[in-house]
Amino acid sequence: MRRFQLALTTIGAALVVGAIFGGALGAVAGIVSVAVVLLAGALLLWFVRNRFRAWRYQERHEDLVVARGVMVRRLSVVPYGRMQFVEVTAGPFERLFKLSTVKLHTAAAASDARIPGLERDESARLRDRLTELGESKAAGM
Question: How distant is the alpha carbon of residue 3 from its chain centre?
Answer without folding.
Answer: 12
